[in-house]
């Protein structure tokens, strides 16, 4: 089938910043796109051919939206999978396939999938309700500290909490959840795996998330990861094992822990373009968004190597600032070599809200890392 | 002034493929855009915030369009400059400035500008009407062969003809024109110069247009040009001289001839993103479209170096094909390493119509050039 300048229709569920970056690629190839999002102000509203306002979790909205598209993809996992299953049964190509999406969408199911398939992951217990955790602690089944994760609807750090005492449980919603053993990790890594509808597979280089030494928050995504070749090899092997078991079509971003003794554990996965792959826009031969489009259209996958080293810094709202956003000192970072800011277009900032990202590329990784730190220390996302 | 996620408005005259590629950058930075084009089917209609259908040559259309924008730029030179002058006098920042645009818009004026400023260019004669040329030939003022160029409204090879005999003059429109001495050139080069509103200047590497040995048509744009360093230095010097005399804001693409004895002559210039800079999307630290936006917004200019070698191939409609377009073998070129097609979104092809371009990048120039040839020999733009 011809996708370029033809009658082919691609549907995207979710109209946020990931969708917006996907739309650059569909525009490059003149692919007709239809996007649905709950917000009439979604970043994708312009740049797609046809925008539909609707709830991603509503069966009828999703089903009606998807009926006339040829291929349907997502930019967020929290969508109505029942509607997708019906569309799939009616011949719409849904990528990621609903089988994969069902496994991933629920974190308890996802963890069980890893253990069922002998994929290394941190030990965990599943609870139907958060309120069941206290019993488990009192009868010795669970020890502090552990990581509480909501089974559903977590996104960007929402729905995750480190629990060190009974009091930490007080504010948590009483929902299906898991309690996961805290991993004493040396680094967090990620591997983006691309798999097209014909089963062709390619992996991007292993990236590394560098944490702020005090705040325990990811500060930099670094490609390639500064790890031993043997560790990188192991990380890619684990990512490929997840990929082949889960049978996704499109991208699969596999987040991993490298433990103190160089074991690789799967943290979680996302079946779509991912924050850990944003560096690829400037650094890779084929960026992750183009690759996702290639994969779901059954086109040959592009070269995943990097042209240059890349470091990504998330732009989040500064503490103490809520209101109309201002990007303070953005001119100063534009003076630095190899620096590209991406502004997601949210008009209002609030503390820690993800407002954009900045990519820094250079032939020399050490130089890119140094400039990234200057970027981080220079730009501030504040309110007027 | 803050441009990012603010009330700032950028106007673009012309909604074709160059405008479309500019819009990727404005979207990346969440800059509000308003675009005018004569066609309701213009590629920019989606992806801009506000589309206006109107004639670029009509005073009222251009003036009305530009009144409420902060900065106004163009993607094509053939616009109503009187309207731009009025807008400029009323405080709209028009980039390129109308003084520069008036010089460039008329090829006779442009050529006179070069001779007035001691900028090397091929000898020429200006005629108020094509019909005056015959007299000049009969009285010995002009010899065959020469290049006839319409003074106004030429674009993409339109309005240019090599004249070898009186008969060749028959089909030409009777308009203001120039007759230019044919240059016996070794190669055609181009230098893209960026100049921002504060007067900061950067040049991209010299690129080379490689011609088909028989068809005498540009086949490849190659960056960097495979020329001696001394020739590249001279080309950049000449381009910078044009830039400083013409006082543009934004990009200035300077097309040059390298003569058989390594002299550099200016062919013509364009005060906007240009076909000779398309390779920069994949190959450069800062692509030409982002650079144009930086320049007209008075932001610091980005690094113009290349990450990798780049070769660009224009995708034009195959001979003998008119109608609904099909990109034959596009899957095959997507299998090649470092190959990125750009499809402009024209639904109808006709012989030699510019339908898109393909960029090939590689660390190794010889490899990129070889793959470019494979691309050229593989993909065909045909009709259904």
Helix-strand category of chain A: alpha+beta
Rg over alpha carbons of chain A: 21 Å
CATH class of the largest domain in chain A: Alpha Beta
- State the low-pLDDT regions of chain A, or none: none
Architecture (CATH level 2) name of the largest domain in chain A? 2-Layer Sandwich
CATH topology call of the largest domain in chain A:
D-amino Acid Aminotransferase, Chain A, domain 1
Descriptive key words:
Dna Ligase, domain 1, D-amino Acid Aminotransferase, Chain A, domain 1, Rossmann fold, phosphoribosylaminoimidazole carboxylase activity (chains A, B), 4 domains, N5-carboxyaminoimidazole ribonucleotide synthase (chains A, B), homodimer, nucleotide-binding (chains A, B), alpha+beta, 9-stranded antiparallel β-sheet, 384 residues
What does this structure look like?
Chains A, B: GO terms for molecular function: 5-(carboxyamino)imidazole ribonucleotide synthase activity; ATP binding; metal ion binding; phosphoribosylaminoimidazole carboxylase activity. Chains A, B: One of its GO terms (biological process) is 'de novo' IMP biosynthetic process. Chains A, B: Homodimer. Chains A, B: Belongs to the PurK/PurT family. Chains A, B: ATP binds at residues 107, 149, 180-183, 188, 267-268. Two copies of one chain form a homodimer. Chain A starts with 8 loop residues before the first strand and ends with a strand. Chain A has 384 residues and is of the alpha+beta class. Chain A has four domains: 9-94, Rossmann fold; 123-181, Dna Ligase, domain 1 (2-Layer Sandwich), CATH 3.30.1490.20; 183-305, 2-Layer Sandwich (D-amino Acid Aminotransferase, Chain A, domain 1), CATH 3.30.470.20; 308-384, ATP-grasp fold, B domain (D-amino Acid Aminotransferase, Chain A, domain 1), CATH 3.30.470. In chain A, strand 14 (250-259) and strand 15 (264-270) form a beta hairpin. The first copy, chain A, has helices at residues 17-28, 59-66, 81-89, 98-105, 107-116, 133-138, 229-246, 280-283, 288-296, 330-334, 365-378, and strands spanning 9-13, 32-37, 50-53, 71-74, 93-94, 124-127, 146-150, 160-163, 177-181, 185-195, 201-203, 207-211, 218-223, 250-259, 264-270, 309-316, 323-328, 339-343, 348-349, 354-362, 380-383. In chain A, the strands form four sheets. In chain A, strands 10, 11, 12, 13, 14, 15, 16, 18 and 20 form a nine-stranded antiparallel sheet that branches. In chain A, strands 3-2-1-4-5 form a five-stranded parallel sheet, with helices on both faces. In chain A, strands 6-9-7-8 form a four-stranded antiparallel sheet, with helices on one face. Chain A is 27% helix and 30% strand. In chain A, helix 1 packs across helix 9 (288-296) and helix 2 (59-66) packs parallel to helix 3 (81-89). Chain A contains eleven helices and 21 strands.
